[in-house]
Design goal:
The protein is 30% helix and 27% strand. The protein is α+β, with helices and mostly antiparallel strands and 119 residues long. Pfam families: Dabb.
Length: 119
């Protein structure tokens, strides 16, 4: 089965499941407040890294800092894949997800944008 990512087959952690390919993608972009330290970002990244182990509805997970290219307008990005809208809703309200937001993101967050799309 070919990956439904516009011909990009180099996405190793998004695998077909018994239901097929993930059908909901959540993308969030964050800009941090001035004075945010590398340690603050590392703590956020560490907290986010644990979410796929704690939330079984996550079928694919990528996150990281911006690449410092001229077109980069955010400091950090998160892309999460789900099999269904219901799985996304479970993730969005999951206590571990909310804990990561409250403890590690909100204290350094300046601006956030997000989209969820079906494919």
């Amino acid at each position: 089965m070919e990956a439904p990512h516009g011909g990009c087959n180099d996405l190793p952690d998004i695998e077909p499941t018994e239901k097929g390919w993930a059908v909901i993608t959540h993308c969030a972009l964050f800009s941090f407040q001035d004075g945010t330290s590398e340690e603050d970002v590392r703590r956020l990244s560490d907290a986010l890294s644990h979410l796929p182990d704690l939330i079984p509805e996550i079928k694919g997970f990528r996150h990281g800092t911006g690449a410092n290219l001229p077109t980069t307008t955010s400091d950090y990005g998160v892309v999460v894949e789900f099999e269904s809208l219901d799985d996304y809703k479970i993730y969005a309200s999951h206590p571990e997800h909310l804990k990561a937001i409250e403890q590690y993101l909100k204290p350094i967050l300046k601006e956030r944008s997000a989209i969820q799309f079906e494919h």
